[in-house]
Amino acid sequence: MHIPASMLNGAICPVTTAVSALGLGVAATVARKSEHKSSAAKFAAVTALIFALQMLNFPVQNGTSGHLIGALLGVSLLGIPFAILSMAIVLAVQAVFFGDGGLNALGANIFNMGLIGAGLLGVIYQRMQAKGLNQKVSLGIASLLSVLSAAFVCSLEVGISGTVAFSKVLPAMLSVHALIGLGEAVLTVVVVSALSFYAALWKEKERQFAFGAFALAGLAAMLSPFASSFPDGLEWVAQKLSFMEFGGFEISSMFPDYQAGFIANDGFSTIVAGFAGIVLVSCLTWVIGKGLDPLRIKTSA
């Protein structure tokens, strides 16, 4: 659901950028003051996992595909403020290095998938648990709603931009993303359950947990050549409704379409690009994690 550079126009870009910047500032402040923050290694590993899992598009219907957003995956493993920051890092790296999501639309993408997906739906997820709903059920419902909420806000943004009428884009977006959301729910519960089981074997030791998350990220990168080549939900709707295109801010990316251009074999090229993304995301997240907790002395071993 990454909005490309050509899809938004007018005030929606600077407004969403300002709101997202403010939201990230609040998230960073809360994360820094949190008494239960994850280590920089765990923060980096989960963020890398979200990046890698987003490469695995799965077929939905009518020649379209979907992929994990990962907002609730981040919330369940890192907590809300760190999950918001994690989503922002993934989206920024994708926009700058992979040409996935326009730079002028980065604020909108962070707002949709970070502040709404991880922030608002993270709160709803916690409220459902507080009401006594089963953790896995809560996680599945919140994951589904995170996709539908992001699709709703995305529809509102393209409608305000004049890309296509809101009354036309909303039902198309919700219909396809309802199915994608079901995939999001299943994948999120499965991945979180697997990592929770793995963590229990090590009695929640974060270093071993981080290793497990990095291993899953690597596995996802290895499987990325087998991802569906169908357009994702937003691309499919744009083709179906013939979205108007605008002049957005674009730069040449190092790994366009998740391909390492210096490698001839497409499958191996995708794998190399995936591992490059994992390294980029991990390093950036680790530095930010250290910056959010410079006084932390005790580390999990």
The radius of gyration is 18 Å
Kindly provide the name of the CATH class.
Mainly Alpha
The averaged pLDDT comes out at: 92
Question: Which topology does CATH recognise?
Answer: Arp2/3 complex 21 kDa subunit ARPC3
What is the makeup of the main sheet? 2 strands, antiparallel
Structurally, the number of domains stands at 1
Assembly classification: single chain
Task: Tell me roughly what share of residues is in helical segments.
Answer: 55-70%
Kindly, what is the distance between the CA atoms of the first and last residues, rounded to a whole number of angstroms?
37 Å
Write a concise keyword list for the protein shown above.
301 residues, mainly alpha, Arp2/3 complex 21 kDa subunit ARPC3, two-stranded antiparallel ribbon, 2 strands, disordered C terminus
Q: TL;DR?
A:
The chain contains ten helices and two strands, in the order ααββαααααααα. The protein is mainly α and 301 residues long. The longest helix has 36 residues, at 166-201.
Walkthrough of the structure:
With 301 residues, the protein is mainly α. The protein has a single domain, classed as Orthogonal Bundle (Arp2/3 complex 21 kDa subunit ARPC3). Helices cover 68% and strands 1% of the residues. It contains ten helices and two strands. It has helices at 12-33, 40-53, 71-78, 80-97, 106-130, 135-161, 166-201, 206-223, 233-241, 266-292, and strands at 58-59, 65-66. The chain has a two-stranded antiparallel ribbon with strand order 1-2. A hairpin with a 5-residue loop joins strand 1 (58-59) and strand 2. Helix 2 packs parallel to helix 8. The chain is globular, with a radius of gyration of 18 Å. The N and C termini lie far apart (37 Å). The relative contact order is 0.19. Mean pLDDT is 92; it is low at 297-301.
